[in-house]
Amino acid sequence: MALPFETATQFAALGLTLVGGWFLGLASRSGGTKWRERYQDEELEHARYRDEAEGRLHALQAELKAARSQVSAPAAPVAADEAPGGGWRGWFGWGRDNLARVKGIDEAREKRLNELGIKTYREIEKMAPDDEAALEQRLGVPAGTIAEQGWREQAALLRAGNEREHAEKFG
């Protein structure tokens, strides 16, 4: 009796036929819709979560904006010992800028400014003209000195890190 498959070519043809049938069976089975439905469900869940997270983010941003609008700056410079909490600015006095870099402020004047509660470029930059006049009186300098020397502009440049522009403009 002869065997139906005797050569290597016949066995290869049988193997290819079996593999082709297997692929045909996988392609025609209905299980693909199940996976597609799961994928679509996951997409919908992700979109819902993303919308929910964006809603929370907008609510928190609105809350932050409202909180920032309630905070108001003091009208005049306040001495460190008069400031709420004793004028604390971080551990070991950190949180100060080198105010002596502003042309017109030497080390002694910087020390006096620190005593008055002015320790950062931002505080000089945000100073109103009325605040300037009060500060000039406290420092004992002629009226208009702060504006003439451009302390606010210098402080803004230094706070923004524009060292080169500050050096070119104010020496």
**Structural class given helices, strands, pairing?**
mainly alpha
How many beta strands in the DSSP annotation?
0
Which percent range describes the beta-strand content?
under 5%
The averaged pLDDT comes out at 82
Low-confidence runs (pLDDT<50, min 5 residues)?
Answer: 73-90
Element-level helix/strand string: HHHHHHHH
From the spread of the alpha carbons, the general shape counts as elongated
Summarize the helices and strands and which ones pair or pack.
Layout: H1 8-28, H2 31-70, H3 107-115, H4 121-125, H5 129-139, H6 145-149, H7 151-160, H8 163-170
Structure explained in plain terms:
It contains eight helices and no strands. By secondary structure, it is mainly α. The chain is elongated and about 125 Å long. It starts with 7 loop residues before the first helix and ends with a helix. About 11% of the residues have low confidence.
Compact summary:
With 171 residues, the protein is an all-alpha fold.
